[in-house]
Amino acid sequence: MSLPETFVKGFHDESEVKKMKYLPLGGTGMNISQLSLGTATFSYFYGDYNEEECKRTVHDAIKKGINYIDTAPYYGHGTAEEILGKCLEGIPRQAYYLATKVARYEKDPKLMFDFSAEKTRQSIEQSLKRMEVDYIDLIQVHDIDFAPSLDIVLKETLPTLHEFVKAGKAKYIGITGYTCSTLLECIEKSTVPISTILNYARLTMIDDTLKEFIPKFQMKNVGILNAAVHAQGLLTNAGPSDWQAACKEIKDACTQARQHCIEKGVELGKLALYHSLQQQGPASVLVGMKDRQILDYNLKVVHDGLTSDEQAAYNHVMKIFDKLTVKHWGTTEIENYWKAVSA
């Protein structure tokens, strides 16, 4: 098996890198690891974290073949980017692709989003400074479905990102969001080249909405990143955070699946990751990992799949989810946001 272009002899564990599967990210020329590293967990968003353990996790992840890292100024409101910058110390820049975002920032709903050109410029410069890098491989507009209109994304945010690409401070532009149709509409209307989409929780055990759109993105040579495959904790034995916005039908089905897995001594999160890794279309499954135990656990799923007991549990819980009449909560979260803004 050939080594990826991010391989650095003397830094990587060559045998581990050779085990990893790499897929092209649309037309970017980047071949990225099937499992990629999310950093929202490098903040209070998902409970406690240890900065030194985050650093060890990043180093181990890259040495073992993960070559794509995603972050955002919204995660911990700058904390995740700052910590990631420290984590990247001592790692050759060639060894990883780095993605961050613009447009989503604060906790207060009235200050949360800003798609303006001025704020976008400030944000990118701050991200470069926080992470102590000269360029970002992929700069993304964060959650375009929360914008007051798609026009501001098309006329201000994306053209500003293009300025940074032309200046060599970013290489490619992407967009992220819950709503597949909005992502597609943005690509079709944009005069700025959009190289990737990152979609949340739409290709999971409980929701396969993204499948319908994959051929449409592929026809436009747009790379696809599949994020939130654990559905913000719904598809784990630990369960979701209080802020998770799914309706009762989804939560009840996930509770039933969770209880079955616990009874069988199986981790639902492992089944969720396995399921998403089997789906065709996305170049990578993006998972937040804040310690080496979680990293190694997820890498084991990538390399070894499921045991027979886990496969039996997987088959059982998929029958539970097949009965769902509602698949997602994205529109609820967007509606709640606009209610909070107008209050």
TrEMBL record:
Known InterPro entries for this protein?
A: AKR (IPR020471), LGALDH-like (IPR044479), NAD(P)_OxRdtase_dom_sf (IPR036812), NADP_OxRdtase_dom (IPR023210)
Q: Name one GO molecular function term.
A: L-galactose dehydrogenase activity
The NADP-dependent oxidoreductase domain is annotated at: 35-313
| Record GO cellular component, one term | cytosol
What is this protein identified as?
Answer: NADP-dependent oxidoreductase domain-containing protein
**Record organism:** Callosobruchus maculatus (Southern cowpea weevil)
